[in-house]
Design a protein that fits this description.
The protein is α/β, with parallel strands linked by helices and 614 residues long. 30% of the residues lie in helices and 20% in strands. The chain is built from 17 helices and 24 strands. Strands 10-11-12-9-8-13-14-17-18 form a nine-stranded mixed beta sheet, with helices on both faces. A hairpin with a 4-residue loop joins strand 4 and strand 5. Helix 2 packs across helix 17 and helix 9 packs across helix 12. The site of adenosine-5'-diphosphate (ADP) has 19 residues, from helix 2, strand 19, strand 20, helix 12 and helix 13. Adenosine-5'-diphosphate (ADP) binds next to helix 2, strand 19, strand 20, helix 12 and helix 13.
Length: 614
């Protein structure tokens, strides 16, 4: 019996819990939570799997007994967590989870690049602390991949009031400086801290910008706040003498930075940086008036030309409008979008096509990756049981866990039973916006039920009409045994759903890259997708005989319900009628390497192609 005294207990970010760290092992951290308020003890299964069992933990206990279990195996057991139920006072995805240092799970054998550079991302989102969609995942994943190749990387992020500061390590104020906005200088704090191993500079103006409970949709003028942020990042570099090789901006929110850089800061003291812009979604183009653009200190009227930043559709109108995204395309040294097929689509349609064609030589399509440290079913702390491509048995436990927690009928999964489960579970995890194929999602809910499957939708709508429509659907279906519609954002639940799912549905009308299908595959969920953008680059139909070695999912082309039905029917037929082939697909999709380690090299090549060499 090992006895741990309270010195080995450190208080953690959860106010009424303790985190026990076994510091004797360099490679592992074992944890146990004892929530003194609700008198609930949650044993993390890692504890069991490493042959330890907590006997008792009392607040202020003089000592803590930890007993080594004789003969226990490294395989997790069903008793290592408590099964959830829809009646739980706290839903299972809101239970307390240990803080997760993904650096521990990061790749260790990445070869360092020989020619190292300094890259700075300027972004409105960063996972996991300020994530709304894929942008946040991409910034964190790409930054971590470049760090692991030896490069110096920083991220600049607005210090949104809603950021949970406990997720930031070593947070400290670096300096206070003034940045220009609308005729005056705004006192601004720059903090630094570490998020998922990445050094981040948080920009906090002393005005009302970035206040509120969400990343987007605060009561301030968003466009003006991001114009301020774009300039404040350059101002910080100017006052601190920081000259990265590359400033990498993302989306319309930071589209004004290249204008500010080339027309202002490059003439001050910033000489070295070159600018890369990644467009994650062409739908949002940062519509702005000349007057608004002038508020960041540029003369807005000089950008209202076809070659610079005017929104081509407004030429000759009164007033004409400016697009920050177009300005960003024109003024950046390199422009990237997030998949080769989306690149082709954007050159063929949409009002920005003309600008992109004019700047074709600097425009590239680089497929997004996923962070395989963050998205790893073998180590994911949110999962009740871990699994990987070589040992997928515990995926069934995850499915059963989610089914029980949501009150869905569970297909006869018994403790220790390996019997095939006859009811496929389809998940759809998405922002509920027209781009994502709302009519196809609502149709799938009905159709999956009709063909005796189960479906869980996890989504958040920003539009009140869409919210209402899905609320009505939730009221209609959520008391039954096969459909759950959860209108919320939950990182934890998304991990559990990917792990539980047999299929992940992505029926987008257009999709620049799409991460849901990549994450789904990593967790053994077979994708059912519409053939568009990055979905067309990453999912290949099982019944397409022309490239059987690539086949990894079910693809449909039309935007009509019958096309979706056809794909779902085929997926269900495989699942129910060809269990061996299904298992083979699941293993195949889990083996696909969609990691940033695989694709970050393309960004490094791009950075190298534009940077200033001494
Ligand atoms: P987009 O960037 O257009 O939203 P992507 O597929 O590129 O779409 O990325 C979406 C990311 O956001 C994925 O990581 C997905 O799991 C996550 N996500 C979307 N909606 C939710 C939600 N309601 N709760 C948790 N995660 C979500």
């Amino acid at each position: 019996m090992n006895v741990y005294t309270p010195t080995s207990i450190t208080s953690n970010c959860f106010a009424d819990s303790f985190l026990l760290l076994n510091r004797r092992s360099n490679s592992n951290i074992y944890y146990c939570f004892y929530n003194t308020k609700r008198k609930v003890k949650t044993l993390n299964q890692d504890f069991i799997s490493h042959n330890f069992k907590i006997q008792a933990v009392e607040k202020n206990a003089p000592q803590l007994d930890v007993e080594k279990l004789e003969g226990s195996t490294t395989k997790s057991g069903f008793n290592s967590f408590s099964w959830p139920s829809p009646e739980d006072e706290i839903p299972f995805w809101k239970r307390e989870f240990p803080s997760w240092d993904i650096n521990l799970d990061g790749p260790v054998d990445i070869k360092k690049d020989s020619d190292l550079i300094h890259i700075v991302h300027v972004t409105a989102e960063m996972a996991p602390i300020a994530k709304v969609g894929g942008l946040g995942d991409v910034v964190t994943g790409l930054a971590r991949a470049c760090l692991s190749r030896g490069h110096k990387v920083n991220v600049f992020l607005p210090f949104y009031e809603c950021i949970n500061k406990q997720q930031i390590k070593n947070l400290e104020l670096v300096n206070t400086y003034d940045s220009y906005y609308d005729g005056s200088w705004v006192s601004t704090n720059a903090y630094q801290g570490v998020v998922s191993g990445i050094p981040v500079i948080f920009v906090e103006p002393s005005n009302h910008f970035f206040k509120g409970q969400c990343v987007y949709g605060g009561s301030y003028n968003e466009l003006e706040a991001y114009l301020f942020f774009s300039r404040a990042c350059l101002e910080w570099m100017q006052v601190t003498g920081t000259q990265p090789d590359i400033i990498h901006v993302h989306e319309w929110q930071t589209g004004a930075l290249p204008l500010l850089y080339w027309d202002m800061y490059h003439h001050l003291s910033l000489r070295i940086p070159k600018i890369a812009l990644t467009i994650h979604n062409m739908e949002h183009y940062g519509e702005c008036s000349k007057e608004q653009l002038s508020k960041c200190g540029l003369d807005g009227s000089i950008y209202a030309t076809e070659e610079k930043a005017v929104d081509d559709r407004t030429i000759g109108h009164n007033p004409e409008r400016i697009s920050l995204l177009k300005g960003g395309i024109v003024y950046s040294n390199a422009v990237v979008t997030v998949s080769p097929t989306y690149l082709k689509e954007t050159l063929c349609s949409g009002w920005l096509a003309g600008t992109l064609i004019r700047h074709r030589e600097k425009y590239r399509g680089i497929l997004n990756g996923i962070d395989t440290g963050m998205w790893n079913p073998a180590t994911d702390i949110f999962l009740p049981a871990k699994f990987d491509a070589l040992n997928i048995e515990e995926k069934k436990t995850c499915k059963h866990f989610v089914q029980r927690g949501l009150g869905l009928a569970s297909g006869g999964h018994q403790m220790g039973s390996h019997a095939p489960d006859k009811v496929p579970l389809v998940v759809c995890i998405t922002r509920l916006v027209p781009q994502k194929g709302l009519h196809l999602i609502t149709h799938a809910i009905k159709y999956v039920k009709e063909i005796s499957g189960q479906m869980v939708v996890l989504g958040r709508a920003s539009d009140s009409r869409v919210e209402r429509e899905f609320k009505d659907l939730a009221d209609l279906h959520n008391n039954g045994s096969s459909i759950r519609i959860l209108l919320t954002y939950s990182e934890e639940l998304s991990h559990m759903l990917y792990a539980a799912a047999d299929m992940v549905l992505v029926p987008s009308i257009y999709e620049p890259c799409g991460l849901a299908q990549l994450i789904g595959m990593r967790y053994g969920a077979v994708p059912v997708v519409r053939k568009t953008g990055g979905l067309a680059d990453t999912v290949f139909d099982m019944d397409d005989q022309s490239q059987p070695e690539m086949a990894n999912g079910f693809v449909f082309e039309g935007i009509d319900e019958a096309s979706l039905n056809w794909a779902l029917d085929r997926a269900f037929r495989y699942y129910c009628g060809k269990p061996n082939e299904w298992s083979a697909i699941v293993q195949k999709v889990m083996h696909i390497d969609s990691s940033w380690n695989n694709t970050a090299g393309k960004y490094i090549d791009l950075y190298n192609s534009i940077r200033v060499r001494e």
